[in-house]
Amino acid sequence: MKRRKLLGVAAAAAGVSLLPGTAVAAEKDMATRVRHYLDRALAQDCPSVVCGVIRGKDEYVAGASRKGGGPVPHRRTVFQLGSIGKTLTATALARAVSAGRTRLDAPLTLPPGFPVPRKGTRRISLVDLATHASGLPSLPPNLLTGADPYDPYAHYTLDDLAAGLAETTLLTEPGTEYAYANYGFGLLGQALAFDDVDAMLRRRVTEPLRLPDTTTTLRPDMAARKAVGHLAGEPVPDWHDHVLSGAGTSLYSTADDMIRFLRAQLRPERSPFPDAIELTQRPHFTASADLRLGLGWHLSPLANGRTMTWHNGGTGGFSTCAAFSRRSGTAVVMMTNTFSEPAPGGNRPIDELTYTLLAELDES
């Protein structure tokens, strides 16, 4: 695969598409229903896939693998999570706001030598970063210079970030338009805990929520359970990121951890920090009639008028999607070990399947 195409994956993995149409719910038992979606994922060139479902008090997790696609994944199989990790960074922000350590409208502040770009009179605020309304481009302008096409963030240092900020021109005035940006969430992580983002997320989010396998560092036991990522049918390395990891670019997780995370979203009052979780799900920016932004989370209407709260993710060898409906108490997460691109004018296959399955469950 050509270098330009591989580097394009770094930008494509940051993309988000919107909600597809709702399918009519079929009366099937959960195992049959999930198996149908697993089969559809395999038919769309996923080497292996795992799906987790919450429905009220019940949950169901199952995996499937194509011939030659590796072991059948299970609830503790490790995948790279990608941009779903942005909702963890947003949760850390919400915890800081709830504790009075900062405000959503506080301006983005970084140490000396890290110039924050400006356009117009309004400064970039923390809520702008968390709702993709900062005006920042998707990636720093110098990120892909000298990058390994298979691991495009690994070389990037804090010195590079300082240089990239000095070169950055905002696309729009902060707070005016939605434009999805890994750059923005990377900066949000640094604003919350400069040069200590991964440890901060562990202390403030993953440990309190009991997400032991949601981490940027593979333990030996996790490495033994990790699926191999694929791109265009070929095995590829994982992504590594030491600077912009607040965007989820190098985060690992499992269906088991994501089910626990989604349960906290469905029942915040049972979580260690209900006020923070509620704050992440509250609309803070309206992008269009069909898309509002919480902190990290995207909110779109289902056909029945209820709200689907969702985020997808991807790295060079993995694609993931998580969605839930608070009103019906349902949630779906799907994880696969291949990078996939959206269909022209549509969603990635894994996203389409996740949204449609959630819509079925929400209707039934």
What does this 3D model show about the protein?
- Keywords: Signal.
- It comes from Streptomyces olivaceiscleroticus.
- The strands form three sheets. An eight-stranded antiparallel beta sheet has the order 2-1-12-11-10-9-8-7, sandwiched between helices.
- It contains eleven helices and twelve strands.
- Strand 9 and strand 10 form a beta hairpin.
- Helices cover 31% and strands 16% of the residues.
- With 364 residues, it is an alpha+beta fold.
- The protein has a single domain, classed as DD-peptidase/beta-lactamase superfamily (Beta-lactamase, 3-Layer(aba) Sandwich).
N-end to C-end Cα span: 44 Å
Mean pLDDT rating: 93
Estimate nothing, just give the exact number of structural domains: 1
Output the radius of gyration. Answer: 19 Å
Structural class given helices, strands, pairing? alpha+beta
Main sheet attributes: strand count, strand direction, barrel closure: 8 strands, antiparallel
Which H/E pattern describes the elements? Answer: HHEEEHHHHHHEEEHHEEEEEEH
Give a brief rundown of this model:
It comes from Streptomyces olivaceiscleroticus. The chain has 364 residues and is of the alpha+beta class. It is built from eleven helices and twelve strands.
Topology (elements, then pairings):
Elements: H1 3-12, H2 30-43, E1 48-55, E2 58-65, E3 79-80, H3 86-98, H4 126-130, H5 158-167, H6 182-192, H7 197-206, H8 220-225, E4 230-231, E5 234-235, E6 252-253, H9 255-266, H10 274-281, E7 285-288, E8 291-293, E9 298-301, E10 307-315, E11 318-325, E12 330-336, H11 349-363
Antiparallel strand pairs: 1-2, 1-12, 3-6, 4-5, 7-8, 8-9, 9-10, 10-11, 11-12
Helix pairs in contact: 2-11, 3-6, 3-7, 3-10
Pfam family, one: Beta-lactamase
Protein name: Beta-lactamase-related domain-containing protein
Keywords: Signal
